[in-house]
Design brief:
Pectate Lyase C-like, 14-stranded mixed beta sheet, alpha/beta
């Protein structure tokens, strides 16, 4: 009887029937495959350990600073020699993170809440690289398992971690934060070199207080997210090289720039919007170019300070597949 009914259908009706059956089969296969993948992901997560967040506090001792070598030059703006800076690397992934300055000393404090069965906090010291101390926080589970199982994807169960860096200790700092959100304040630290990378999330970076003695150089990289940098002048860097992609980058160049200094700043950005806010208390030379070859050499506006001792900023901006804006305040 069913064969007879099919034979009575026209060619277009038969095609529609077969297409519908085919689509339904595909949907069934996809749903079944997804259910199996979720089950495998949950099984993978369950094998790692307890998924319940617990409170953690850890103190990580830094090596004692080595005295400066005889005849070593004092840093710019200083009349005394400085100890050889410690090398500190911090790599944080998959969570909500706060990085801030702490009391003077030689210890990094790490505290927060996370599931110790699913995440790991690692400390390591490599004497072959000048005694570099490395702090890592990362998930034990692969990304696909976390995504399909739902672990770590909700605001209620994401790791919350605070890293407190001591003041008064000269540090070469390499800091990377990815796959989450961060609030970073590096003001008041004694930094000699800074490499900062933030990715895949919303990140807010600030220098609320001037960096002690000032940086030789700062390298900033932002990708796949919305990033803001405030009081960059308090970094007091001799040179700043910043790059951004696939997101919006807002930079405030306010802060305590040393008088009678000149600083070179480079900003490269693609696939997003770049905004630079520059105070009129500094002298500005800006060159802006785009991937289309357009160039705009921007001089100071009428509100800019006429103080010959005011710091001079030489800013170079390069953009592609996006817009850039420079505003004065």
């Amino acid at each position: 009887m069913a064969d007879y009914a099919v034979k009575k259908l026209s060619g277009w009706q038969k095609a529609g029937l077969f297409a519908g059956v085919g689509c339904l089969s595909i949907v069934v296969v996809v749903i079944g495959g997804l259910a199996i993948a979720v089950a495998i992901a949950r099984s993978t997560i369950a094998q790692l350990g307890d998924p319940n967040p617990t409170r953690t506090e850890r103190t990580i001792a830094l090596p004692s600073p080595q005295a400066a070598a005889p005849g070593a030059a004092a840093p710019k703006g200083s009349t005394s020699k400085v100890d050889t800076p410690l090398r500190l690397t911090i790599n944080l992934e998959d969570g909500n993170f706060t990085i801030r300055p702490g009391p003077p000393g030689a210890q990094v404090q790490v505290e927060g809440t996370y599931a110790q069965g699913l995440y790991e906090l690692i400390e390591d010291r490599d004497d072959n690289t000048g005694g570099r101390t490395t702090i890592r926080f990362r998930s034990k589970a692969p990304a696909w398992a976390r995504l399909l199982s739902g672990v770590g994807t909700n605001a209620g169960n994401r790791p919350e971690l605070t890293v407190v860096i001591p003041t008064g200790v000269p540090i070469d700092l390499s800091l990377r934060v990815g796959q989450g959100e961060s609030r970073i304040d590096l003001g008041g630290l004694t930094l000699t070199d800074l490499g900062l990378e933030v990715a895949m999330g919303n990140h807010r970076i600030d220098f609320k207080e001037p960096v002690v003695r000032g940086l030789r150089r700062a390298r900033l990289n932002a990708s796949m997210g919305n990033v803001s940098i405030d009081h960059l002048g308090n970094a007091r860097a001799e040179s700043i090289d910043a790059a951004g992609s696939m997101g919006n980058l807002r930079v405030d160049l306010g802060g305590d720039w040393p008088k009678e200094t000149e600083t070179d700043l480079s900003f490269r950005h693609s696939m997003g919007e770049l905004t630079l806010n520059v105070p009129t208390q500094v002298r500005l030379e800006a060159e802006v170019s785009s991937s289309q070859g357009n160039a705009d050499n921007r001089s100071a506006d009428s509100r800019e300070t006429q103080d010959p001792a005011a710091p001079r900023l030489r800013v170079r901006v390069s953009t592609s597949m996006g817009d850039s804006h420079i505003s004065r305040y």
